[in-house]
Design brief:
CATH architecture of the largest domain: 3-Layer(aba) Sandwich
Helix content: 25-40%
Keywords: Pyridoxal phosphate
InterPro entries: DegT/StrS_aminotransferase, PyrdxlP-dep_Trfase, PyrdxlP-dep_Trfase_major, WecE-like
Number of helices: 12
CATH class of the largest domain: Alpha Beta
Pfam family, one: DegT_DnrJ_EryC1
Bound molecules: pyridoxal-5'-phosphate
Protein name: dTDP-4-amino-4,6-dideoxy-D-glucose transaminase
Radius of gyration: 21 Å
CATH topology of the largest domain: Aspartate Aminotransferase, domain 2
Structural class: alpha/beta
Largest sheet: 7 strands, mixed
GO molecular function: dTDP-4-amino-4,6-dideoxygalactose transaminase activity; pyridoxal phosphate binding
Distance between the termini: 23 Å
Strand content: 5-15%
CATH superfamily of the largest domain: Type I PLP-dependent aspartate aminotransferase-like (Major domain)
Number of domains: 2
Length: about 375
């Protein structure tokens, strides 16, 4: 069976883990953690980066940082992973879902303003498949209504947005805060792992405290205070050096990983184009303001029936393709709470989107040949 995902190892992971272990410092915030954080700050224009144990944790830190309280409203797409919402639900927020765009699972920025109320505190754009949301509009609305923007950049490492001013910015460097994931299903991995990107200076000091269990331990180790103690709420959000060492081996090879993934993506795209048109299937769209980081190759089928048939056919041919999110407003947990609008575009992607295997060592030509033989 061709798997849907297969974690890629660059070869240096165990070597760096051994270095970390031998250094005698295996708790968090050591040399490898700092290397990884610096990588994000220097390559992607992020003001301050903090490694976390997951993207979920980075989102929870963001919710604490913007002081989400009972009754606050947070606007986000429904076609996303549960963590995007859970981080805010845990702090008592009410989630307001905005529909997806017609041409992309990303949120439809033209539908945002109608959902803003005096209780709205934040907008959480999710860069689905690593493709940018329309950030100019989102940031302008946030400014106008005094809201925070937290980018869910879980899938968006090494992807960019070009605004109307022509400046190309890395995803995760635009919102006040952003969260990345290094889960083994993402492009750059550490098993479990994540990163909080802090782009608004006002959050930097407090973020470090929340990250270190609510203590000013980081400032203490820099010699800024002469003893450390409990100064705020917090939790254990920082990963051990063992995880950071693994991640560093991946980041060192980011260019290579990205270029191989992109070649697989482009192979799918060019060789499946005619077949897709013949079968009324849509291939992924990359808007002019965004880039493709080859996180995912998906198909949008013409119906649920067509998708079910295609998934079945591929399974019979030993290829594991999968559908994606069951939109959150229809989830067993949130549908009893949610009393918002219908989200027809979100529902469409829930029913019709499917993903093909995409990982470093995948053999796309084999999969393409099988697919092209369907419904002949
Ligand atoms: C993977 C993912 C997450 C969660 O990441 P973890 O690191 O597993 O916590 C959150 N949001 C989106 C959009 C994701 O794809």
């Amino acid at each position: 069976m061709i798997p849907f995902n297969k974690p890629y190892l660059t070869g240096n992971e165990t070597k760096y883990i051994e270095e970390a272990v031998k250094s005698g410092k295996i708790s968090g915030n050591g040399i490898f953690t700092k290397k990884c954080q610096h990588f994000f700050e220097s390559n992607y224009g992020i003001k301050k980066a903090l490694l976390t144990t997951s993207c979920t944790d980075a989102l929870e830190m963001a919710a604490i940082l913007i002081n989400i309280k009972e009754g606050d409203e947070v606007i986000m797409p429904s076609y996303t992973f549960v963590s995007t919402a859970n981080a805010f639900v845990l702090r008592g927020a009410k989630i307001v879902f905005v529909d997806s765009r017609k041409d992309h699972p990303n949120l439809d920025e033209s539908k945002l303003e109608a959902l803003i109320t005096p209780k709205t505190k934040a907008i959480v754009p999710v860069h689905y498949a690593g493709v940018a949301c329309e950030m100019d509009t989102i940031m302008a609305l946030a400014k106008k209504h005094n809201l925070f923007v937290i980018e869910d950049a879980a899938q968006a490492v090494d992807s960019y947005y070009t605004g109307k001013d022509g400046v190309k910015k890395a995803l995760g460097s635009i919102g006040h805060l952003a969260a990345f994931s290094f889960h083994e299903t993402k492009n750059i991995i550490s098993g479990e792992g994540g990163l909080l990107a802090i782009n608004d200076e006002q959050f930097v000091d407090r973020a470090e405290i929340i990250w270190e269990k609510g203590t000013n331990r980081s400032a203490f180790f820099r010699g800024e205070v002469d003893k450390y103690g409990w100064v705020d709420i917090g939790s254990s959000f920082l990963p051990s050096e063992i995880i950071a060492a693994f991640l560093w081996a991946q980041l060192e090879n980011l260019k290579k990983i990205q270029s191989v993934r992109k070649s697989h993506w482009e192979n799918y795209y060019s060789k499946l184009s005619d077949w897709a048109t013949e079968n009324q299937i849509e291939l992924p769209k990359i808007p002019s303001y965004g880039t493709n980081n080859a996180h995912m190759f998906y198909l949008v089928c013409k119906s649920l029936e067509q998708r079910t048939a295609l998934l079945e056919y591929l399974k019979k041919n030993e290829i594991l393709a999968v559908f994606h999110y069951i939109s959150l407003h229809k989830s067993p947990f949130y549908q009893v709470i949610y009393n918002g609008n219908e989200l027809p575009e979100t529902d469409k992607f829930t029913d019709t989107l499917m993903r093909l295997p995409l990982y470093y060592e995948v053999e796309t030509d084999f999969i393409i040949k099988k697919i092209a033989k369907t419904w002949k």
